[in-house]
Amino acid sequence: MVAAILSFVFSITLWFLSEVGGTWGEIISPISHLQSFSTGVLETADLAYYILVIFGFLFLSVRVLEAERWK
Q1: Which of 22, 39, 56, 60 shows the smallest number of beta carbons within 10 Å?
Q2: How many independent structural domains does the chain possess?
Q3: Does the pLDDT of residue 21 top 80, yes or no?
């Protein structure tokens, strides 16, 4: 339950970051990268953003699992 609430809060924060965060908010927010996908245009910058986010979270997951294994 806690994970669901934290995920929801994190998602909403990223959603509004594109509107109130200025230039950096638009770079970090996934909403600005989804706009080209919704029109059917595949831009390499948007694809690179999602690939980097996926690999970043996979890297963090592996690090957490390795830390748990060595405890």
Answers
A1: 39
A2: 1
A3: no
Question: Which amino acid is residue 18, in one-letter code?
Answer: S
φ, ψ dihedrals at 2, nearest 5°: -65, -40
Task: List the domain range (segments joined by +) for residue 39.
Answer: 2-69
Angle among Cα 51, 18, 56 to the nearest 5 degrees reads 25
- Give the per-residue pLDDT at 16: 83
Residue keyed to tokens 């405890």: 71
Q: Quick one: which of 18, 16, 55 has its CA closest to 63? A: 55
63 pLDDT band (50/70/90 cuts)?
very high
Give the length of the chain. 71
Residue 56 has which token pair?
A: 């970043």
How far apart (Å, rounded) are the C-alpha atoms in residues 45 and 52?
A: 10
Residue type, 50: Y
